[in-house]
Write a structure and sequence with these properties.
The chain is built from 5 helices and 3 strands; from the N terminus they run ααβαβαβα. By secondary structure, the protein is an alpha/beta fold. It has a single domain, classed as NAD(P)-binding Rossmann-like Domain (Rossmann fold, 3-Layer(aba) Sandwich), CATH 3.40.50. The protein has a 3-stranded parallel β-sheet. The mean pLDDT is 83.
């Protein structure tokens, strides 16, 4: 389990380097806080290989890491994001992506995952 966790953490891609101060990078802080949040939520969901999860705000800090954790555990991902971020979510590994600003988006994941 510990080796799996180390592998997952080493493969995560943090956001572009934004600086909070010259000595502390925001991306380093974000990966710690958002990564831990994503991991705890994912573990609480108890998703296992071949399950399907829907991740809202999949292009955000917690969501983007959750997508990568899910993919590392062979879990299928339906990602929700705004239209401008759908390709990012797809590039992180989501099999299905939907724009949550579009009317009727909530029925699309059910239809697409069948």
């Amino acid at each position: 389990m510990e080796e799996d966790m180390q592998h997952m953490w080493s493969s995560l891609r943090p956001p572009q380097s934004l600086c909070l101060r010259s000595s502390i990078r925001l991306s380093e802080v974000a990966v710690l806080v958002q990564g831990l949040t994503a991991l705890l939520v994912f573990e609480e969901a108890r998703a296992k290989a071949d399950d399907t999860v829907l991740i809202s705000a999949a292009a955000g800090g917690v969501g983007s890491i959750a997508v990568q954790i899910a993919k590392a555990k062979n879990v299928k991902v339906i990602g929700l994001a705004s239209a401008s971020k759908l390709e990012l979510v797809r590039s992180l590994g989501a099999e299905h992506v939907f724009d949550y600003n579009q009317p009727g988006w909530s029925s699309a994941p059910l239809e697409d995952s069948r």
